[in-house]
Structure formats: structure tokens, C-alpha cells
Amino acid sequence: MSFHLESPLLYCARIFDMRRRNFLGLVIGAVAFALSGFKTAKAKTAKAKTAADLKGPITKIAFGSCCIQDGPQPIWDVIAKSAPDVFLFIGDNIYADTEDMTLMANKYKMLGKKPGFARFRNATPVLATWDDHDYGINDGGLEYPKKEESKKLMLDFFGEPAKSERRQRPGIYTSYYLGPKGKKLQIILLDLRWFRTALNYDKAIDGYKPDPSPKATILGEKQWEWLAAELKKPADLRLIASSTQFVSPDHKWEKWANFPIDKKRMIDLLDENKITNAIFISGDMHYAELSAETSPKGFKIYDLTASGMNLVENGSQYPNRYRISLYDKTPHFGLIEIDWQKSSANLALKVISDKGKTVISDKVSYPIA
Ligand SMILES: [Fe+2]
């Protein structure tokens, strides 16, 4: 198959259009593109590992987002070097941005033919949820008319079994329950697109403001009911993958804080269930950061954002009162290492650069009952 090639300038301009963001911050992506060029591959995806290949206990989870299929993706070989048990692809896995399903299918094919990705998924199970661009529309929600078709393409690409529950119900949210007692990890992949009501766009700021209306929702009632039941299952550690940021409240783009009732509902749900062992991971922003806020009951809620597997922009221009650390220089991915001890799960929360350097690192420990 032949791929459509773009000039670096066009590539840069198109990404600018996608995000309506600071153009200068995107120069790194364009330069990387210009230097690297394109490579096609003959790699096959037939042997791709899936959730069925996952075996517990899980000790290393890599994750990432914002991975444009038109650009080079050398990051996969760097992720492979960290030898994760599983990779969570948490949104903007391709930039489809279309209602043309042939075009969307071709963009998944482009990702599948990336040599690094093809090698990686043949060795490591990849679990995925989507964000707006792979869902099909920039900053889109429930109104997107091709969501059924887009869901099928996405689940087919990531090897979802034909009889999976995920295929039977609306949306693509799901969970995985891995490892033995005492090392039980629950991975929750949320769907922030299928049910999401309209954003509250404010022309004056060219961005989004919180919508306090009781009808405004990011997850939708069905997904909330499912999540409430999931959080009642016992687990020694929980990872909640949210394609947009959960904690960061101050920038004008997409985030949970745009839906204050839903954000409070999530925090209340954790507090009511006395859940103190949950970590959010997120993407979407084209930079990495670790944020933390404290719930009313005193639970410290971490949100590790790793976003920009081949797209990067200046994150320091976006305020975040809960920011602990920031990385916005080069492509990167997130890495969570778990040291399972008898009475605690000791975690290292990391972001690793495209050069394999640890650029964000923090430690957190959760007791095991
Ligand atoms: Fe996004």
C-alpha cells in the first residue's frame, strides 16, 4: 500500500488546526518529522498479543497517547526496551478526524504497518481506549454520527474478541482484573466520548469553561452504573485510564473539570468506597505531567499524564495548580512499576523520554489488606 506523504510544514499546520493551540509549541514535532522521514514496513500484525495473553502478577505497565499515524514512531522501540507486561494505548491512537470509514480504516492500517508498533504488539499485549481524534472528531462527544462504525474499526484493530461484552453494549469502556490475591490489579479503561454531552465553548477565551448543568456528563449514566459496580470489586491496586486529564483543572482545553458534577461524582465514588489505591492515567495534552489533588476524605488522587508519543508542545504555558512535575521537551511515554510486597504495593510513577531517559519520577505506596 502506498501512503500519502505530507511536507513538514503541512504536517505542522494540520496538527495546529487539530488542537487550535500555540503553533510554536508544535515545531518540535515538525522538525522530528522532517529529520526522520517515512518508512513503510512489511511487518504483519497477525501474531499481535492481546488481553488474552496477559498473565499476572503485573509489575510493569507502560502507557501513552497522541500518536499520529502520518509521522514517524521511533518511540515503540524505546518502550519495548523497558519490557512492560502490558501497554495501555489511551487515546488519539490515530488521528482519524473523519466520518469517512474507509479513510479511518486506512489510518489504522498505517499504524499497524509502523515497523516499531508491529514489532511491539507482537511481543506485548496492547489494551486500548480512545480519545477524540481516533473516535472520529476533534473534541467530539455523543453527537458523532459514525460512532458505531468507528467502534467496530477500533475494536477489530486491537483484537477484541467477537463475543466480548464490550462489543455488545454502547461505548468502549472496559476493565481487566489481573494477578493473584495480594497482587490483584484492576485496570479500568473509560470511554470519555460515546456519551459525553456538548462542551461549554467560550469564544472569549477560545476554549472551554466548566458546565455546571446537572445534564452535563462526561461518562453518561450507563457507564457510571458500570463503574460503580467495578469499584466494588476488591483490588490491591487500580489504574483508571481517562483519555483526558482528571486532576488538572486550570487550562482551557478538555478535562474532567469541564464537567464539575461528574468530577465530584468520581471523587465521591472513590471516597464512599474507601478506595485509596487508585491512580489515574491520562493523555490528550501533548506533554507529560504528574498532578495530585486531595479528596474530601484525604485520599491523594494522582493523575499521571503521558501524552505525546510523537506530538509535543509547550506544556508550561498551561496552568495547573496541582502540577508536581512537567515534561514537554520530546516524545515520551508513561511507565508504572509495581513492587508487590506482602503488606504494600510500592509504585514508581515515571515518564520516559524518547531517548530512554527518566524525565518524571515519583514514588507512592498503597497498603495491601
Ligand atoms: Fe484528544
Describe the structure.
This protein is an alpha/beta fold. It has a single domain, classed as Purple Acid Phosphatase, chain A, domain 2, CATH 3.60.21.70. The chain is built from ten helices and 15 strands. The protein has helices at 8-19, 27-36, 75-81, 101-112, 115-123, 132-135, 147-157, 165-168, 221-230, 260-272; strands spanning 60-64, 86-89, 126-128, 174-178, 185-189, 201-202, 207-208, 237-242, 278-282, 288-294, 300-305, 323-327, 332-340, 344-353, 358-367. The protein has a seven-stranded mixed β-sheet with strand order 4-5-8-9-11-10-12, with no helix packed on it. Strand 14 and strand 15 form a beta hairpin. Helix 3 runs parallel beside helix 5 (115-123). The N and C termini lie far apart (54 Å). The relative contact order is 0.15. Bound molecules: fe (ii) ion. Fe (ii) ion (FE2) binds next to helix 6.
Which properties best describe this structure?
single chain; 369 residues; alpha/beta; Purple Acid Phosphatase, chain A, domain 2; 6-stranded mixed β-sheet; 10 helices; globular; binds fe (ii) ion
CATH fold group: Purple Acid Phosphatase, chain A, domain 2
Report the structural category. alpha/beta
Q: Identify the CATH class.
A: Alpha Beta
Number of domains: 1
Shape: globular
What oligomerization state is this entry in?
Answer: single chain
Output the radius of gyration. 19 Å
CATH superfamily: Alkaline phosphatase D (PhoD)
Strand content: 15-25%
Main beta-sheet annotation: 7 strands, mixed
The order of strands across the largest sheet is: 4-5-8-9-11-10-12
